[in-house]
Amino acid sequence: MFDTLSERLQAALSDVRSRGKLTEDDINKAMRAIRLALLEADVNFQVVKTFTAAVKERALGADVLESLNPGQQVVKIVSDELTQLMGGAGRDLVFAPSGTTVILMGGLQGSGKTTACAKLARHLREEHGKDVALAACDVYRPAAVDQLVKVGQQAGATVYEQGTNRNPVEIAEWALGRAKAENRDVLIVDTSGRLHIDTELMEELARIKKQTNPHDVLLVVDAMTGQDAVNVAEAFGGQVGFDGVVLTKLDGDARGGAALSVKAVTGKPILYASTGEKLDAFERFHPDRMSQRILGMGDVMTLVEKAERQFDEKQAAELERKIRRQEFTFDDFLDQLHQIRKMGPLTGLLKMIPGMGAQLGNMKVDERELDRIQAIITSMTKEERTNPSILNGSRRRRIAQGSGTNVSAVNQLVKQFSQMQKVMRQLSQGKTPSLSQLARGR
Ligand SMILES: Nc1nc2c(ncn2[C@@H]2O[C@H](COP(=O)(O)OP(=O)(O)O)[C@@H](O)[C@H]2O)c(=O)[nH]1
Ligand SMILES: [Mg+2]
């Protein structure tokens, strides 16, 4: 996500970042590099102009140039301004105080509307505990209804559909009636798109909007299309009107032009970001976190939230109890491994830690190593997992064979595990292991 932009901006700032003293010339040079980086990222020309002017004015302020660490201050200013550019504090959906909240989704064909409907449904269910229904109003492609039914079910939402023989405005009206009668918290209306902006599409969306009186109209735009996405948003804004943006396919967007321009051009904030084909690749868009991620300052908040979601307090307390009583087994170890892996690919997680992004570069964390560990533990019997001391040579050979690894891999894991247990024992007895012990894992 935003890799190219991120690299270019960090390069543009690398010179000033470390500098103890800055001159106006240094600032001008950095601003030129930032302007180029943004234009290359396909950020709207006018937006780039306003942005660099704002950064420059603040950076040239006496309090910055004369401060102890002017370089860091400039980086902070760029980060602040990027945050402002993407919408400041950002916002979540607004729910109706009572009754069914209606969300209408619009956008071009292929922008990711149907996928986003299901992802949003899942998000609202999991994060807000809402009972969500989806209305299938894309009647132009038979497959579109089936697709919504399928992803809607995966998301745990009820899907209202009437095939493709009725007109979408009637279906929307009927679905809203059902949602109200069935006391659904939220109704998300999926609509059809066209390949390009056309009046017919706009009029249909406007009619559905009039009929259902949605609390929020969300425009789904494909980040990979850069400036085109922004133009589409401008056209929709002028003809139908919308309240917020769902930016999709950020996983394939190295440049970030749409993310940086859409708020400034349309005046509407990005509410959600979609970052992959899977239903859980969806998150609220936080301009401040995003700007820090782009500048390589890490995104600790998102990381913490991810961890909290995966690891509830009860589990944490249970784990602590086991460590204290020295009952931590291979099964618990496997559990921990699952918890970590549920959070997503390790490389992605590490990138959210400040300073790690740049260090990692193109390095890939070897997920296969984790696969091997998992395979070895699952090849153990229940007894072996609880009581590793019974692991003699023949048992180890059997495990190696069962897991498709070799005896030395099994030996290594067993050794690491017993070292880990030792550290835990010391911790639980109130002794602090020395740093070198920790480093060696003993
Ligand atoms: N990589 C990636 N693919 C996506 C994302 N969102 C949707 N897609 C894919 O884009 C294609 C079109 O999505 P769809 O929801 O059918 O678009 P619609 O025509 O607007 O309803 C599908 O193949 C989706 O799997 C995303 O965030 N990342
Ligand atoms: Mg669709």
Task: Give a brief rundown of this model.
Helices cover 58% and strands 9% of the residues. With 442 residues, it is of the alpha/beta class. Strands 3-2-4-1-5-6-7-8 form an eight-stranded mixed sheet, sandwiched between helices.
Structure explained in plain terms:
By secondary structure, this protein is an alpha/beta fold. It folds into 3 domains: 3-85, SRP54, nucleotide-binding domain (Four Helix Bundle (Hemerythrin (Met), subunit A), Up-down Bundle), CATH 1.20.120; 101-297, P-loop containing nucleotide triphosphate hydrolases (Rossmann fold), CATH 3.40.50.300; 311-440, 434 Repressor (Amino-terminal Domain) (Orthogonal Bundle), CATH 1.10.260. Helix content is 58%, strand content 9%. It is built from 22 helices and 8 strands. The protein has helices spanning 3-17, 24-40, 45-59, 62-65, 70-85, 113-128, 142-154, 168-181, 199-212, 227-239, 257-266, 287-294, 300-310, 313-324, 330-342, 346-351, 356-360, 367-378, 382-386, 393-403, 407-428, 435-440; strands at 101-106, 132-137, 158-160, 186-191, 216-222, 244-248, 270-274, 282-284. Helix 15 (330-342) packs antiparallel against helix 18 (367-378) and helix 18 crosses helix 20 (393-403). The radius of gyration is 26 Å and the shape is flat. Guanosine-5'-diphosphate binds at residues 107, 109-115, 193, 248-249, 251-252, 274-277.
